[in-house]
């Protein structure tokens, strides 16, 4: 994966994060740091606070209490354009509604680099992003005419084209088939290997475990556990947090989390 610059990502540090909305606590006492060169998977049940935490870490949501630093600076003090050159964000809702072509949507990822020296990387960054997401056969199509999974891959291509040292992806695999899920996670892992910091929200615990360097498990607005996949994904913890009995087996040194399904009635 070319991904032009070989930037080492600035560290992102969140300290004492609370988010309260209409007097309801959404996040409580979250402390976490994301380091250059790591792929961090954010997992947890529906409504746990994963997307809210991602938005706080990316500087898009101001926490009620606590602070986020990027490279030692308060993220609130970083101007919009500079922030767009430091971190990219794939949100859960894919918001392109005007009938742009796929090529136009991916090109939008380059807009923070307009009138900079990095503009020279535009073509390379766009080609790399299109290759990594397997959407080259779609470039002349209207975004609005694509299937859910195709839209998700094109939106990811736009984010990859932005070529930022820090990358936040909220459920990039949700709409994808088996192979494209693996492709997205191995692309995310490759970005981390190249020195970037990558945070991915993912529901499939085995998929998270297979690719992430560390996993952060969010439950009811709190960080339940942070560590390697093997540290975080014990059967006891997964059962307690998800309310479902599971077996945890190991494949190639990584945990695989399997729901224990009862015998089906004959
Ligand atoms: P996740 O991504 O883990 O599914 P979210 O971070 O989207 O969870 O949401 C966490 C909780 O906060 C949910 O109960 C959600 O309904 C609530 N929530 C998120 N944003 C808002 C908001 N703007 N107003 C009210 N409640 C919200
Ligand atoms: Mg979410």
From TrEMBL:
SUPFAM superfamilies: P-loop containing nucleoside triphosphate hydrolases (SSF52540). One of its GO terms (molecular function) is ATP binding. It comes from the Bacteria. Residues 12-245 form the ABC transporter domain. The keyword Translocase applies. Keywords: ATP-binding, Nucleotide-binding, Translocase, Transport. This is Hemin import ATP-binding protein HmuV.
């Amino acid at each position: 994966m070319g991904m032009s610059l070989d930037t080492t990502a600035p560290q992102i540090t969140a300290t004492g994060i609370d988010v309260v909305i209409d007097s309801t606590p959404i996040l409580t006492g979250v402390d976490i740091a994301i380091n250059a060169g790591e792929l961090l998977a954010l997992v947890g049940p529906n409504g746990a606070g994963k997307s809210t935490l991602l938005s706080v870490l990316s500087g898009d949501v101001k926490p009620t209490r606590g602070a986020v630093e990027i490279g030692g600076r308060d993220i609130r003090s970083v101007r919009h354009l500079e922030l767009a050159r430091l971190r990219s964000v794939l949100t859960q809702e894919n918001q392109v509604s005007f009938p742009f072509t796929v090529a136009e949507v991916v090109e939008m990822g380059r807009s923070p680099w307009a009138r900079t020296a990095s503009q020279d990387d535009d073509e390379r960054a766009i080609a790399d992003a299109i290759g990594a997401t397997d959407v080259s056969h779609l470039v002349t199509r209207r975004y609005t005419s694509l299937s859910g999974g195709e839209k998700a891959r094109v939106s990811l291509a736009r984010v990859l084209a932005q070529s930022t040292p820090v990358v936040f992806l909220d459920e990039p695999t949700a709409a994808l088939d088996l192979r494209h899920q693996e492709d997205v996670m191995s692309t995310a892992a490759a970005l981390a290997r190249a020195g970037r910091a990558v945070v991915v929200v993912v529901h499939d615990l085995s998929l998270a475990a297979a690719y992430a360097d560390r996993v952060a498990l969010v439950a009811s607005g709190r960080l339940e556990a942070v560590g390697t996949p093997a540290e975080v994904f014990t059967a006891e913890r997964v059962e307690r947090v998800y309310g479902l009995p599971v077996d945890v087996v190991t494949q190639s040194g990584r945990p695989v989390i399997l729901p224990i399904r009862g015998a089906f009635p004959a």
